[in-house]
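Example 193, ligand nickel (II) ion.
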Amino acid sequence: MILPIRRYGDPVLRKEAQEITSNTPELQTLIDNMFETMKNADGVGLAAPQIGESIRLFVVDVRHYEEDYQEKTGEPFPDAWKECMVFINPEIIAESDEESEFEEGCLSVPDIHEMVTRPSKISLQYLDRHFTPQKMEVDKLMARVIQHEHDHLDGILFLDHMSAFKRRMLQRKLRDIQRGVLETKYPMAKLSA
Ligand code: NI
């Protein structure tokens, strides 16, 4: 089922999400629905707060970038990235001092793409969809996507990483997103008044 995506200005995007304590059939259905919703919107990642669930879960699918990745890095696209990935209760346990800049966007903030600086490399521990503990060290594209999605669980948006000046320049566009003036090709939830 395709779920409506919460838009910039929705309070759920600013909440600290809750740890997930048990694996339930409802959780598995939610994960499937998030995959479907992300795919329909051509997203590379989707965090649970973006569909109105304030829980520590996000899904990632970077297959979209396979060609681009090989071209830019000259490296083969890792096998582990060739499927939809599920991250439950993820925790970033280490990050590199080295930072890199990359253009980001967000399904909750449509039509805005800006450069964001983040650590280039991170280590992460999490539960997969079977609740099996996993540990992962990632860099480049995957590190980027995971940090963006992980931020969502703490109520942080990629806009928060920009300068105040940049944000001011985007104010009008952000207001349009809030008011629902901006059309998207995927369903978005209306802001409750
Ligand atoms: Ni996002």
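Summary: The longest strand covers residues 85-95.
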